[in-house]
Predict the 3D structure of the following.
Amino acid sequence: MTIKGSCHCGATTFSVEAAPESVTRCTCSICSKKGALWAYYWPEDVKIETPSVTATYRWQSKIVEHNFCPHCGCTTYTKSPSWENYKPNFDKPRIALNARLFDDFNLDAVPVEVIDGKNLW
């Protein structure tokens, strides 16, 4: 089952072959202001079809690369290390897609996990 997603204007598109088992709501300042629900995947499982269209923002720690559409402003995906015991593992990178941008997908059927990023980082 291919899941496709895009920003509001359609300039940035992506797809994955599997639905997320859960999505993550992070309470850090940037994630909460963006309102994203993150679906985490291994890089080889994500196809970013228009990577040259995205713009990147690296906030404070410079560990997480936040990508967004420079035309409509939608937060599209992030690139980061995986996290084990609250420490970054740069040998296992992850891509988090903003699941709110999935097309024709029942996001309400997926459990939401909350990460206390406001107090952890």
In short: The first helix runs from residue 29 to 34. The two ends are 35 Å apart (CA to CA). The chain has one domain: 3-120. The CA atoms of residues 83 and 89 lie 6 Å apart.
